[in-house]
Specification:
single chain, 93 residues, alpha+beta, two-stranded antiparallel ribbon, 4 helices
């Protein structure tokens, strides 16, 4: 169990919103990478669907995409695991 002394609060910019999250100290980079990854995925869907899909629908589509395809095409080609796969593995351990 993680106590409060092992936690820190950081701000992450995810798409167009700044959010505060409590994380384990030393994992700031992991969360910043995840926020960038999510923002990139949302931006892709916005470019494809803006104007004929609502922002809520685009957000849901992005979440489904990330849940079903945690590795991006480029990462698969390079043989690297995405930040999401690392996060999933972390929470399973």
């Amino acid at each position: 169990m993680v106590n409060n002394e092992q936690k820190t609060k950081i701000q992450l910019e995810v798409y167009d919103e700044l959010i505060e999250v409590n994380i384990i100290k030393g994992e700031e980079e992991k969360y910043q990478n995840a926020a960038r990854f999510v923002t990139e995925r949302i931006n892709t869907y916005v470019k494809l669907h803006c104007g004929w899909k609502t922002q809520h629908t685009i957000s849901l589509m992005t979440m489904l995409d990330i849940a079903l395809n945690p590795m991006s095409g480029n990462e698969c080609k390079k043989g690297h695991r995405s930040i999401w796969r690392k996060i999933i593995d972390y929470f399973k351990s």
